Amino acid sequence: xxxxxxxxxxxxxxxxxxxxxxxxxxxxxxxxxxxxxxxxxxxxxxxxxxxxxxxxxxxxxxxxxxxxxxxxxxxxxxxxxxxxxxxxxxxxxxxxxxxxxxxxxxxxxxxxxxxxxxxxxxxxxxxxxxxxxxxxxxxxxxxxxxxxxxxxxxxxxxxxxxxxxxxxxxxxxxxxxxxxxxxxxxxxxxxxxxxxxxxxxxxxxxxxxxxxxxxxxxxxxxxxxxxxxxxxxxxxxxxxxxxxxxxxxxxxxxxxxxxxxxxxxxxxxxxxxxxxxxxxxxxxxxxxxxxxxxxxxxxxxxxxxxxxxxxxxxxxxxxxxxxxxxxxxxxxxxxxxxxxxxxxxxxxxxxxxxxxxxxxxxxxxxxxxxxxxxxxxxxxxxxx
Length: 384
Hints:
Blueprint: H1 2-10, E1 16-17, H2 19-22, E2 30-34, H3 37-43, E3 49-56, E4 59-65, E5 75-81, E6 87-90, H4 100-109, E7 114-115, H5 124-132, H6 136-143, E8 150-155, H7 159-190, H8 193-202, H9 204-221, E9 235-241, E10 246-251, E11 254-259, H10 260-265, E12 277-278, H11 284-303, H12 318-327, H13 334-349, H14 354-365
Antiparallel strand pairs: 1-6, 2-3, 2-6, 3-4, 4-5, 5-7, 8-9, 8-12, 9-10, 10-11
C-alpha cells in the first residue's frame, strides 16, 4: 500500500524506469507512475501518482477516480497508456511472494468494473488486491491494525505566529460579514415596509456582534510586535497513520507525508516534541475510510495546488484535516480549548491590551442563535 511504498521509495531502494524501460518488464509487474518524483523523494509532499499493473503493449491497468471530491467518489478500472512524462517505480509486495501471471489475471478480471465506495485515490488498494486475491478490508484487519488511526503530538508555537494567524482569521471573518451585509441590503430594498421592520428587529443582535468583531480586528491589527518570551498554552499537531509507519498530515499549506518517528520528534514549527497520542481504536471499516479520505485529499492536492486551502491555526489546521478524514466533519476541538486561550493569553499580557482580551471572549460568546453570522472559530474554510 502507499505507506509501504513511500517507506521503501525514500530509501531509494526501488527501481525507477522510463516509459521505454517499462516496456522491457514482464507483464504482471506492479509499478507506481509518478510525476516530479524527485520532489516526492526530497520533500515528502504530494505529487501526482498512480499505482497499476503492467499489462504489456504500452499499457497499465489502473483504478481511476472519475471525481475529485474527498467525501464521495466513483472509481473505474481501465487501461492507462505508458507516457514519457511519467517515471515508473517498481512496487514490491509487502505480503510475500508475487505471482505476476496471477496478478495480471486478477487485474484483467476487474477491467471496466465500476465502484461507488470510497476506494484509494492512487489505486494502491486495487494493486494489493490483484497481488493477493484478498479484499483490502481483509488486509487491513490482518496486517494494518494502526492504519487509519488519528494521532497527535504536542506543539508549542511562538506567540507572534499565533497572533498573526488570529489576525488573518479575523480579516476573513470581517470580509465575510461585509459581503453578507451588502447582500442583505440588496434584499432589503426589494422587501415591503413590514418586511424591512422585521429584518431590522431581527438584525439588532447580529449588528452588535458584527461591530464587536470589527472593533476586535481594528484593535488587534494595531499590534505590531509581540515578544516571543510570552509562553503560550500547548497546542497539538495532528496526522493520520499510513502503512509502513508513515503519517499523512497538513503542514505549511500542503498535505505531506513523513515517518511516524519524525512526526513525533520534529513537528514543523514546534519548540518541543513528544510521544504521540492516538484516538481510541476504530473498527477496520472506519479506519479504511479515514485512510482513503486522507489519500484522496493528499493526491488531489498534487493536482490542484491549494485545493485544501491555506493553513490557519484557527480556521483550517491539521486537526481540521484529520477530523474531516475521520468523521466527515471539518472541525477542530483545540480551536476553543487551546488556540483561542493562547490568543487570550497573549492579549492579556501585552501592555494596554487587557480590554481587547475581554472583547475577544465577548465576541466568541455572543454568537447569535440561528443567526446568519457564525462565530469566528466556527468559520468554515470556503476554498473547496
